[in-house]
Design brief:
four-stranded parallel β-sheet; alpha/beta; 7 strands; Rossmann fold; 10 helices; three-stranded parallel β-sheet; about 50% helix
């Protein structure tokens, strides 16, 4: 029997995409209509944003923990959060959680390590790109991280927070993100982490000039694998 997966949701687009990916991957591996039991809990994104804007990661962590407890009460046996930015609050509550967490940065770092990448560009929200989430996860496996410059960080953040979180997909936004990836490649990056769970809605496999590590899909696959451990 597979373990019951809990999803601590924040933005609906990224969380729904992660849920769909778990189910699709499970069906591909296990057969038609088959996937583990999954429960999703979501506070209003505004509750998280009020804490993100203040960089109150302890407060964000308390919300994450409350969500994990609600999921554990439904029977969930492991938990994921398909929001890279909110992983700044995970260290605050990981030990207090009633069920184990899979850390999205660590999942992406393991994939980068397995692929032999040495220098990975990181794209996400402004708060994620200036955080230690990916430098710490990548650094733990000997991989260097490169962030876009300030102007590019602002461009990518706007695409995410103004468009993607509300499901807006435009060619202009895609070109903006692909251009930023090209500039990261010019700085020596041999791969780029799509470290926002909505970015795969915009940048598909093979569209970028360097390989893209899809944090949403990788987290979904890791959750599915963990559910059978």
């Amino acid at each position: 029997m597979a373990k019951h997966i809990g999803i601590v949701a924040s933005s609906y687009e990224g969380s729904a995409l992660c849920y769909r990916m778990i189910c699709a991957e499970a069906t591909r591996r296990l057969g038609d209509y088959t996937h583990p039991e999954i429960t999703l809990h979501n506070f209003s994104l505004s509750d998280y944003m009020n804490r993100i804007w203040q960089e109150d990661w302890e407060g964000a962590g308390r919300l994450l923990l409350d969500s994990a407890r609600k999921l554990a009460a439904t029977g969930a046996e492991l938990v994921i959060c398909p929001c890279n930015t909110l992983h700044q609050g995970v260290p605050e509550i990981r030990d207090a959680s009633p069920i184990p967490w899979l850390h999205i940065g660590d999942v992406v770092a393991r994939e980068a390590q397995d692929a032999g990448y040495k220098k990975v560009g990181v794209l996400g929200t402004e708060y994620l790109m200036k955080s230690r989430v990916y430098p710490e996860s990548m650094g733990a496996v000997g991989i260097a991280c490169v962030m876009p410059d300030e102007a590019d960080r602002n461009r990518v953040d706007r695409v995410i927070m103004v468009e993607l979180v509300d499901g807006m997909i435009t060619d202009d936004a895609r070109r903006t993100v692909l251009d930023v990836i090209e500039r990261l490649a010019a700085k020596g990056c041999d791969a780029v982490a799509l470290a926002c769970t909505e970015l795969p809605l915009l940048v598909g496999p093979g569209e970028a000039v360097v390989p893209a590590l899809d944090s949403t899909r990788l987290l979904a696959r890791a959750a599915l694998a963990a559910s059978f451990e």
